[in-house]
Amino acid sequence: MKQLRDKYAIVGTGKSRLGKVDGVTALGLIEEAVKAALDDAGLKNTDVDGLLIRGPDDIYCLHQLLGARLGVNAAFSSTLDNGGASQIMAVALAAMAIEAGLATTVVCAYGRDTWSRTNRGPNNERRDKREEPNMIPPSQRPVEHGPEFGFFGPVALHGLGARRHMFEYGTTREDFAAIAIAFREHARRNPEATMREPLDLATYMSARMIVDPFGLYDCSLVSDAAGAVVVTSAERARDLKAKPVLIKGFATFNNTKGWFLDDNMVTTAAAECSERAYKFAGVGPADIDCAQIYDCFTYMVLTQLEDYGFCKKGEGGAFVRSGALGLEGVLPTNTSGGQLSEAHVEGMLQIVEGARQLQGIYGPERQVKDAEIALVSGHGGNTICHSTLILGRA
Amino acid sequence: MSNYKKPVPIPSVESKPYWTGLKEGRLLIPKCGECGNFWFPPSLHCPHCNAANFSWEPSSGRGKVFSYVVFHRVYHPAFSEEVPYVVALIELEEGPRLISNLVEIKPDDVQCEMPVSVVFEKIANNMTLPKFRPAPLY
Ligand SMILES: [Zn+2]
């Protein structure tokens, strides 16, 4: 795959409105983000011939619906289903499709109306309090080996991994707090971020527990939001409006044997995935100037930082407490606030942020100085699917 | 038992013998007839060697807490009186791991690797759940 290194590029990035967006649908949010990404690239809808989309699980053939709204007959299109690993996979598939001659200009987008859909009553009326804590549609929830024991939802699923890591390596909730606090600090410099209140250790510790070992601030946001990027060849990118960002490498790896199998809860699919991605891009962990790590839960950042080789397995706690994740740290991470503090768009906004850091578009308060290489991770699908994207300054 | 409000498992074609075993007070799990591998949850082929030849064998019911979480949030109204309650990932002696509850122990006293043994909790005439309680070292 390394013959694809630096051959394709992200040429436009876009976000929708983020947070609690009144009167909007998942598709509408995706439209907003795609429009912004195309405007950023200086492209028109008629330039697009590829659509790789993801949205709420219960919308059938989402890419067809978006194609209709966008007025695009797509030479290459699909709706992806690899959980939070889907969005980087979309960028990877875009590059591969262009390489294969199937398309020239591919829009990769993800959007959701998760806050709105979980905050509505039976007559679709708006409610202030979330009524439905489970975001998985009822038809797709397990009916044995879990719910009968009161085992519900992703917080508990990931929490089992966190607890095992705490047991094996002495990781603590203070370590998790350092991650939440570092990302909040980034969000405070991002006017688009949903959560911009200061967060300190005392606030973290005194917040209500959701599923121990996770409290409120260990859990990512429930958002109405969308993000999009446009992928085309690096050659074509030179003639476009935005400063292109080169795709140096990517990989996917999925521990499809299961989260509960082997030591998958403490060494995630990121371990195998990162090796493949580093090889593809011809770089190693020491070359990464900024990271955008899939932060569905604080612990998942900690274990991925280890799996990506930024520190040794078991040393993630000390690493995050050292201040490594801050703007001036050794590895500025989730510099927009991430899913814990900006908005949760299953990794799409982290691709956007990785690309924008390399374009160097921000003011000094949030720009990673001299950022040349960014790493983005995607993770999900019941915490077994993983993807890695390594981007480079053009 | 008629006022039992928690979710009652809906057995699949593959898991039916498992639930039938529990009803009879046995924790049956699939064992590969070719390589001897035990696995869970039930499926039609051994995940180790892909053989179709397997039998339902009784587990000793002994195991350990591989990991656990404590629910504070109520996700289902039938658990509103139970919070905080423990959900544990149990590793059976035979190898497979399965989700269950711990009984006869307070959440604060639970630890990873603590030995446990199965107890059978009948929740309806045709449904029994495997739960686990602390066991002496064996
Ligand atoms: Zn076998």
Q: Could you please describe the fold and organization of this structure?
A:
The complex is a heterodimer of chains A (394) and B (138). Chain A is built from 13 helices and eleven strands. Chain A has 394 residues and is an alpha/beta fold. Chain A has a single domain (2-117, 224-393), classed as Thiolase/Chalcone synthase (Peroxisomal Thiolase, Chain A, domain 1, 3-Layer(aba) Sandwich). In chain A, the strands form two sheets. In chain A, strands 3-2-4-7-1-8-11-10-9 form a nine-stranded mixed beta sheet, with helices on both faces. In chain A, strands 5-6 form a two-stranded antiparallel sheet. The longest helix of chain A has 17 residues, at 153-169. The radius of gyration of chain A is 19 Å and the shape is globular. Chain B contains one helix and seven strands, in the order H-E-E-E-E-E-E-E. Chain B is mainly β and 138 residues long. In chain B, a hairpin with a 4-residue loop joins strand 4 and strand 5. The model of chain B has no long low-confidence stretch (mean pLDDT 96). Chain B is globular. The complex binds zinc ion (ZN). The site of zinc ion has 8 residues of chain B, from loops.
